[in-house]
Write a structure and sequence with these properties.
rod-shaped, ATP_synth_b/b'su_bac/chlpt, ATP synthase subunit b, proton-transporting ATPase activity, rotational mechanism, mainly alpha, cell membrane, 161 residues, transport
């Protein structure tokens, strides 16, 4: 019998399959595939766990952001209240200052009026005394003039005090 190439290829295939079965290659392949499947399963579980952690962190950060926003709004509201209070206080102080300044100005005006009236009275008295002196010089003699002058000055001093 003649053996052609097909026969040798067939024998080689049988030997190859026998060798594979003897070396337990299908079991190793199955074991390798099982390990790979287990690794993929573990990686998927790890990815799922990491995803859940990320979602928890995201929820925490969102809650913290909301708290921070609420705190910022509270700070802004407190600042607005404080600014309003400071504005009101400044307005009241300004009004009090204006009232004090007005009272001081009115007091100064009254003092100036009093000083002016006193100056006018003093000038009128001086003028009256001068006029009386001039008239008395013309109509009275020296002795009468001195007695009248002394009496007038005493009377003027008495009225001014």
């Amino acid at each position: 019998m003649e053996y052609d190439a097909t026969f040798f290829a067939f024998v080689g295939l049988i030997i190859f399959l026998g060798l594979i079965a003897y070396l337990k290659v299908p079991g190793m392949m199955a074991k390798s595939l099982d390990e790979r499947a287990a690794n993929i399963r573990d990686e998927l579980a790890e990815a799922k766990r990491l995803r859940e952690e990320a979602q928890q962190l995201l929820a925490e950060y969102r809650a913290k952001r909301k708290e921070a926003e609420a705190e910022a709004q509270a700070i802004v509201a407190a600042a607005e209240r404080e600014a309003a209070a400071l504005t009101e206080e400044a307005r009241q102080k300004t009004e009090e200052f204006v009232q004090r300044r007005n009272a001081l100005s009115e007091q100064k005006i009254k003092q100036a009026e009093t000083d002016a009236i006193n100056a006018v009275r003093s000038a009128a008295v001086d003028l009256a005394v001068s006029a009386a002196e001039t008239i008395l010089k013309q109509k009275a003699d020296a002795q009468l003039q001195s007695s009248l002058f002394a009496a007038s000055i005493g009377e003027v001093k008495g009225r001014l005090n």
